[in-house]
Specification:
By secondary structure, this protein is α+β, with helices and mostly antiparallel strands. The protein contains six helices and 17 strands.
């Protein structure tokens, strides 16, 4: 078995956690490779010995499993890097809340040993495909959400939305989020959107600070195509795709549909979506 380790930054306070991962993999004779940039972060910010560890750039990595070492933002970045490689991803929590990176430090040795023995589940997570009318930007994909936000103005923007070619409504708000079930525990959750099981075949549409009290979050089937047209006093707006932002003129329209790509997440056998929700949101405490 070959396991690759990814991360977007590193802090020496996680030395014990990373050393436990390295030792567990070595003990089980697992071939290990560090993504090049994460290797450099660890080398610069810790005294962990990496002398015998292979490093490669993400595009050159071919592995059975990828470990995302960090929080949910790191998991999103890892998924993006591995989009076309069909590599299973395990999220190990070295960040904050961690709905995607949900393996805590106390479970590391047990979980890794079970995974090496083939004892795990695979969850396939749907992604969004985002296409802008200005073709120079190409096509984007998002595991969590795409957000249309006001830019260069304190005024609301207006967003016309059609679903499957039908005019649905015109939102007057600070913005609008289109989310996957995975993203329902991210930006959408902070806006009062519902939590959706990742096995649900739905998209979630959530306005930001809408002007009308009758405007509420909307759940639709994920086989629908959504088109959005923005009107802004500044003539500009912002699109944020899993947190990565682009500033656009309001002449640019946005088309959103389900992507052909899916992210394959590893889940330990004793982990479930509802257990993660209970633990992270402290339900029942």
């Amino acid at each position: 078995m070959k396991i690759a380790i990814f991360g977007t930054t590193y802090d020496k306070k996680y030395n014990k956690l990373l050393e436990t991962i390295i030792q567990t993999l070595n003990k089980n004779a697992v071939e290990m490779v560090f993504e090049q940039f994460f290797f450099s972060f660890v080398k610069q910010n810790s005294d962990i010995c990496l002398d015998n560890i292979t490093k490669q750039y993400a595009q050159d990595i071919d592995a059975d499993i990828a470990i995302s070492f960090g929080g949910d933002g790191t998991f999103l970045a890892t998924a993006k890097l591995l989009l076309e490689k069909n590599i299973l991803i395990l999220g190990i929590n070295a960040g904050h809340l961690g709905f995607l990176a949900d393996v805590p430090e106390k479970e590391i040795e047990t979980v890794l040993s079970e995974i090496i023995d083939g004892k795990y589940k695979i969850e396939r997570r749907a992604m969004l495909r985002i296409e802008l009318s200005d073709k120079k930007y190409g096509v984007f994909r998002a595991l969590n959400e795409v957000a249309l936000l006001r830019q260069d103005t304190a005024s609301m923007i207006e967003i016309d939305m059609t679903i499957e070619g039908e005019d649905v409504t015109s939102y007057k708000s600070d913005g609008l989020i289109i989310s996957t079930p995975t993203g329902s525990t991210a930006y959408s959750l902070s806006l009062g959107g519902p939590i959706i099981s990742p096995k649900s075949e739905n998209f979630l549409i959530v306005p930001l600070a809408p002007h009308s009290l009758t405007v509420r979050p909307l759940v639709i089937p994920d086989n629908c195509q959504i088109e959005l047209k923005v009107y802004s006093r500044s003539g500009n707006y912002q699109v944020a795709i899993d947190g990565q932002s682009i500033n656009l003129p309001d002449s640019t329209t946005v088309k959103i549909e389900k992507s052909d790509y899916m992210v394959q997440c590893i889940q330990p056998l004793n982990h479930t979506f509802f257990k993660t929700i209970r633990d992270k949101l402290k339900w029942g405490v």
